[in-house]
Amino acid sequence: MIRAHNLTLSVREGQHSRSVLQGIDFHIERGEWVALTGANGCGKTSLIRCFNGLNTPSAGSLTVAGLDMRPAHNRAAVKQRVQLVFQNPEAQTVGSTPFEDIAFGLENRGLARDLMIARIGEILQQVGLAHKTEAEVSTLSGGERQRLAVGCCLALDADMIIFDEATSMLDPEGRLDILELAQGLWQAGTTILWVTQRMEELAVSPRIAVLGGGQLLYDGSPRSLFYASALPDALGWTPSPAVRVGKLLQRQGWPVHLLPLTGQELEEIL
Ligand SMILES: Nc1ncnc2c1ncn2[C@@H]1O[C@H](COP(=O)(O)OP(=O)(O)OP(=O)(O)O)[C@@H](O)[C@H]1O
Q1: β-strands 59-64, 2-13: how paired?
Q2: Chain-centre distance of CA 4, in angstroms?
Q3: Interface predicted TM-score (ipTM)
Q4: What range(s) does the ABC transporter domain occupy (predicted)?
């Protein structure tokens, strides 16, 4: 789905240019779930904006959905296939009701009116908003708005959805809700890039990429990141309670593949 080789991005700052991403070698296969993490300002948003054509790399190669991202027409084509769900639930709705919002995404598809109404119904059902079809968007909760944003990605038939810290402004229930919605889409075949700084969201990701200072510092499984890499300590991360207990077990000789990543895995061990 995504192949980046030696990807470099520089931005203009007054008279000078500053390197924001340096020499990134990274790939995401179709149908994969990958989490992307790193401290504020390390380049996560800059990288994902390259993936959906909003940023143009200064050097290196980038292919998305089989398209070379250098020509502008390829970047424009990819914008529809790789959709973003942003942090702020209020910043991504255009319609005044969920129905209108999804209709907006479907407008350019040339569907007959009855087919369009049926498709809007299916999408709102899929994101759990069928009962809010005609509600004022301003009355939706943050989590419902994020569900609606996901519905808009579905209306555009996205091959890949990038969730850019999409749970960071939600309460714990809303966070779990959006995570589970994304997991359902992933199980149905959508490629997911899940950008987060939350340990519990990293723990449930099969693969984690860590960015630091515009470079890819780690790309691998959560278990090797938390139990076999010095990176979390070096980056000053606070481990989740499950990993803290796991570290104690590790010191007593437990094999890495049995160490817990989540509260549920910890409960099973205990
Ligand atoms: N168009 C731009 N012009 C100037 N500086 C930019 C531009 N885009 C990104 N940057 C800078 O590049 C660096 C990386 O920013 P980016 O938003 O990609 O980081 P991030 O990891 O997503 O941060 P956060 O977690 O805070 O959202 C920052 O120092 C930012 O100010």
Answers
A1: antiparallel
A2: 17
A3: 0.94
A4: 2-238
Question: Kindly report the CA angle at 214 between 210 and 216, in degrees rounded to 5?
Answer: 35
Distance of CA 213 from the midpoint of ligand 1 (Å): 10
In order of their start, the domains of the chain are 29-53+79-221 (3.40.50.300)
Distance between CA atoms of residues 233 and 177, nearest Å: 30
Ligand 1 neighbours, Cβ below 6 Å, are: 11, 13, 20, 38, 40-46
Check if the beta carbon of residue 6 is closer than 8 Å to that of residue 59: yes
What is the pLDDT tens value at each position of the chain, 270 positions in all?
999 999 999 998 888 889 999 999 999 999 999 999 999 999 999 999 999 999 999 999 999 999 999 999 999 999 889 999 998 877 777 888 999 999 988 887 778 888 989 999 999 999 999 999 999 998 998 899 999 999 999 998 899 999 999 998 888 888 999 999 999 999 999 999 999 999 999 999 999 999 999 999 999 999 999 998 999 999 999 989 999 999 999 998 888 788 899 999 988 887
- Specify the pTM: 0.92
DSSP annotation of 80: H
Residue ID of nearest Cα to ligand 1 atom 9: 46
User: What count of other Cβ atoms lies within 10 Å of the Cβ of residue 237?
Assistant: 18
- The minimum-distance atom of ligand 1 relative to the CA of 49 is 18
CA distance 3 to 62: 6
Are 82 and 158 within 8 A, CB to CB? yes
Site to probe by mutation for ligand 1, drawn from 12, 46, 56, 162 as the one with most ligand atoms within 8 Å of Cβ, is 46
Concatenated DSSP letters for 235-263? TT----HHHHHHHHHHHTT--GGGS-SSH
